[in-house]
Protein: EGF-like domain-containing protein
Amino acid sequence: MKLAPDEKNCYEQKEFFIYSRNSEIRGVDIENPYYNYITPFTDPDVSQVKTIDFDALEERIYWSDLKPRFIKRAFINGTGIETIVSADLPYAHALAVDWISRNIYWTSSDLEETQINVARLNGSLRTSIIHGLDHPQCLIVHPLKGKLYWTDGNNISAANMDGNNMKNLFSNQREPVGLSIDYAENKLYWINSGTGIISRCNLEGVNLEVIGSMAQYLTKATALAIMGDKLWWADQASGWIGICNKVDGSEPVIMRKNIATVLHMKVYGKEMQQGTNLCSVNNGGCSQLCLPVSETRKTCKCTVGYQLRSDKMSCEGFESFLMYSLHEEIRGISLEPNDKSDALLPISGTSLTSTKGNFHQLMYPFHDTTKYMFWTEWGRKPCIGRARLDGSEQIVLVSSNIAWPNGISIDYEKNKLYWCDARTDKIERIDLETGESREIVLSGNNMDMFSVAVFGVYIFWSDRAHANGSIKRGHKNNATDAVTVRTHLGVNLKGVKVFNRAREKGTNICAKNNGGCQQLCLYRGKGRKTCACSYSVLAADAVSCHDYDGYLIYSERTILKSIHLTDETNLNPPIRPYEKPEYFKNVIALTFDYRQSSKNTNRIFMSDVHFGNIQVINDDWTDRRIIVESKYMPEMNEYYSYCTYFTNNHLFVI
Structure:
């Protein structure tokens, strides 16, 4: 709000100056930049902000944050802060909002490559459009013209907003910063930070003009913005923010002094985001992304994992692509080495590989006639084993000349089982049914193979010793002449797997009504099945399940677990483990109320010395409640005859 000329009333002015520093975003008054027009965005919402932009239609500010690797947005009144692109984001140095087509563009860099991406303003339907960049810093869009501009090192480049028609406009600039568009005049502006010279040209990159009169003010320029007939600029060396005439740099005025490094700036105003294009109405008829490429043309594009149908408007999922896992992430890429686009949005936030003992990897293919699962084991007796899907008929297929078998994969066309060995540096295969006809497909040196996948006439494998983590492809009969699909994926590269939509077809006895089983139906091949139970025991009818009559329950501070009282060979817990850190912090005593006459009403009592209470919960983990609260923390309890007894060592009482 601003005070009106009558000095009595206030009015809302939706035009102000936004700038970002390392750990804050500020919106200040245009006439007096010392006055905050909006509440500043600071820690923890901003950690290491790089670039900002805005959408005047929804009155939101967007920013990229390098430290948590997020792109966020919020309303200008400070509410509605949300992350739209999150943990999988590799270092977004620049972003730009297409306020007409309702898309957001940003640059991202990782060990493998640097690219420009696009998504809807809420972060959905993400895809990449330009690859193979070096060090992009500035990024701007002209959605009326369908053009995209960016700086890359000392170069300034342009492309259509779908990534096509890319060309270099200028080379050998001197640290260009503050790339901006004068939408009223259709001019491109930037500052060469190394010389203090302001440059401008038309949108095609011709008619270059330079303004040298501002060099004394711009000894280390960092940002530039355009408003009307004025240029706003920021200089790191002097700590100044100022304005000058955009035509010739005349009439310079210092608007604010003693301000730490300004990284980016924008002038917020609705009149600066006007106009329409072919994507304005009904998303241009596109089912996913609509990207303008000129005043008269647009392109429909699909998110990662989808491709355009023949109508060039709607999208359909990929039939096949290659998935690979890192330590806490799953990604998908094309099966073709020359195609560097992603095929799957990264899935992150959980540990994807956990091994205990010698057992390493399990695969249970839907084999047409036999229905087996296969696994590898390490340790003193490394081997490859096979069993029916219910665990019966276990046999060892391979036990000799094998050291560290990792990934296993099925060739469904030839009925072959493939595996790689990280110690012998080999990929081998055997007959799926008999375990015979063992053959070496690839043998090498100084490799660190972790997984292999078979698809069509090719095999794909991960090699963590090559080029800081690579995926390679070779012929499945002889992979000596291999090609590299991707490099620099990191030493945490692990599994590879081919997704193929057509592969998972067919049916069996378990497909209809779960084979008549109450819980699990496990197909054994040749029309046979076995029913099984989860956290319960199979009844005499071999179909239904019932609870165990008794078990031992114990606590591990924040989790409740159980084991069998008599069957030491049964490693499946009698009841599902229960972990709720918000409820349990240090459970040190348990007791049980067994009610045989009714189902799912057995109760567990526990005392938690962290919260200082006694809680009760049903053994199916429903109906949890606190029955005793005490600042002296009950330490042991027992249930008898509808009463709960507990000790208190602070008061020395029961």
Notes: Residues 492 and 635 are 44 Å apart (CA to CA). The domain at 513-546 is CATH 2.10.25.10 (Laminin).
